[in-house]
Amino acid sequence: MTLIVGEEVYVPDTSAVIEGVVSKLIRDGMVKGRIIIHKAVLAELEHQANQGRATGYAGLEEIKRIKKLADEGYVRFEIGGEKPRPSDIRYAGYGAIDALIREYAFEADATLITGDRVQALVAEAIGMRVIYIPPEKPTILRFEGFFDETTMSIHLKEGVSPIVKKGRPGDWEYVVINEDPLKREEIEDVAREIIEEARRRPDGFIEIDRRGSTIVQLGKYRIVITRPPLSDGWEITAVRPLKKLRLEDYNLPPKLIKRLEEKAEGILIAGAPGMGKTTFAQAL
Prior knowledge:
- By secondary structure, the protein is an alpha/beta fold.
- It folds into 3 domains: 9-132, Rossmann fold, CATH 3.40.50; 142-239, Beta-Lactamase, CATH 3.30.450; 247-283, no CATH class.
- It contains 10 helices and 12 strands.
- The chain has helices at 14-18, 21-27, 39-50, 54-71, 86-90, 96-107, 117-125, 184-200, 254-262, 277-283, and strands at residues 9-12, 33-38, 75-80, 111-114, 130-132, 151-157, 163-168, 171-176, 204-210, 213-218, 221-226, 235-239.
- The strands form 2 sheets. A 7-stranded antiparallel sheet has the order 8-7-6-12-11-10-9, covered by helices on one side.
- A hairpin with a 5-residue loop joins β6 (151-157) and β7 (163-168).
- The longest helix is centred in the N-terminal third of the chain and has 18 residues, at 54-71.
- The model has no long low-confidence stretch (mean pLDDT 86).
């Protein structure tokens, strides 16, 4: 790595790349100079993408955006650092990759960009310059534009027109809201936006991220993202409860109420699609 006197150097960690904050900082003019993507970031994202996890795809798309901005002259772009060992990737959740990136940034006298509060605190404790991007306040995402006060769920699939389920449990219908079939790129963009927002927001989290599927809780929305090889294309289903019910609202027999109060394990909730199984489970 050749240093230029007076040039600012920035090293983002994996959290900053997955959350898509680096390209935003560049476009906003807050980051200028040189961006160095550590090989450990690439290796971790590649590993996640090979497992079919949405976080890996989101991070790789962000690196493409950073590279494009570099090609347009906003910053200089480099890949640096040593390739991590398989054990480093295996123990990424325990901070192994974070430590590699942090040490590299420290030795390069670079500013660390992170969305991880613990990573930021450790870096600050050893005297590093840090740009910490905390979780943002909730914003309106593209998928939310498909919802209105009567929408129970939305169903997006590549090559198919977007469909919404309108009505209430037990009395609903599917409605096509746009005749134009969705392109794969559009579905991927919506999925990436959801993943980035879930990692940033305090009311969002990625519950499951495995090969072919990702389950996200984002505020009041329960979102399932599927992709090949699990499905024949990218799909997104987002469900929102129209009303939050209490157990008392169901007028259950006293004997059943007593059973639920004493022991709620081992209960099977059955019913046709759209009949309110999830709503009942939440009340339970």
